[in-house]
Amino acid sequence: MAFQKGWFADLRREVFDEQRPYAIVQADVPFEPFQLLGVRAVSNQWWASLIAAKKMAPAYLDAMEARGYHDGLCRYCSLGLASTLAGDRRPGPWGGLPRPALICARLTCDCIQRVFSTWAEALGTEFVPLDNPGATLLPPRWWELSRSRWRELVEPHRLAFAVADLRALIGVLERISGRAFDLDELRALMHAINTQEAIFDEVRTLICNAPKTPVRMTEQIANVMATCPEKSG
Ligand code: SF4
Fold it and tell me: Is any ligand 1 atom within 6 A of the Cβ of residue 74?
């Protein structure tokens, strides 16, 4: 918990106080290239929860609907856009988001391409989309392949497509940061993440096999957005 608090304090200082180049990203975007190239990444969902915690969400959503956006738009992922559209009259938490160097999203939900391209236009920044190529084959018990036999699960054309998208993102991050991407650094980070995930799995199995639930959901939910293994390890 102390590490996470320190991480957010650093994020707030660098992005909001010092106005360093940073990115707004969807929570399911891979954060590793941002971390390795030193570009701070603010998660859209984290910003939305901060707005909600400050009780600013209803006013932003009303303002968005007054502009003609339909009231069925997913709140969780469009609240950040709403805060930008209405931010001139009601600045967001900590004075509102500074202009990011880029925004980035995986196109995993139908509305996201439109939400993020509209947001990029409102912020005057570039939008880097990461496509989400769908599987043409789904083997039985596919989830058992994803850990160590993932090459049998991820079709080569989908993998090549996703790699091309990630290379384009890395190119943008290199331009913004002035730093060069190092594949060996990524490899080391991914090994650390695998180690961390194996520990999570061990804990999950212990919890599942316990005669009574030893921890509450609210105590565990923060692990969904786990900490950075490079720094916490
Ligand atoms: S369904 Fe997709 S767009 Fe809607 S809130 Fe969930 S992640 Fe966001």
Answer: yes
pLDDT higher than threshold 80 for residue 204: yes
Strand partners, 43: 25
Q: Could you tell me the pLDDT band of residue 224, with boundaries at 50, 70 and 90?
A: low
> The pTM is what?
0.87
Contact 22, 41 (CB under 8 A): yes
Q: Please indicate whether residue 192, judged by its CB atom, sits closer than 6 Å to ligand 1.
A: no
Sheet containing 40-43: give its strands across.
40-43, 22-25, 102-106, 126-130
111 close to ligand 1 (CB < 6 Angstrom): yes
Whether the pLDDT of residue 10 is over 70: the answer is: yes
Which residue lies with its CA nearest to atom 1 of ligand 1?
A: 109
Enter the tokens of residue 213.
Answer: 């639930």
Q: What is the CATH number of domain 2-181?
A: 3.40.50.11890
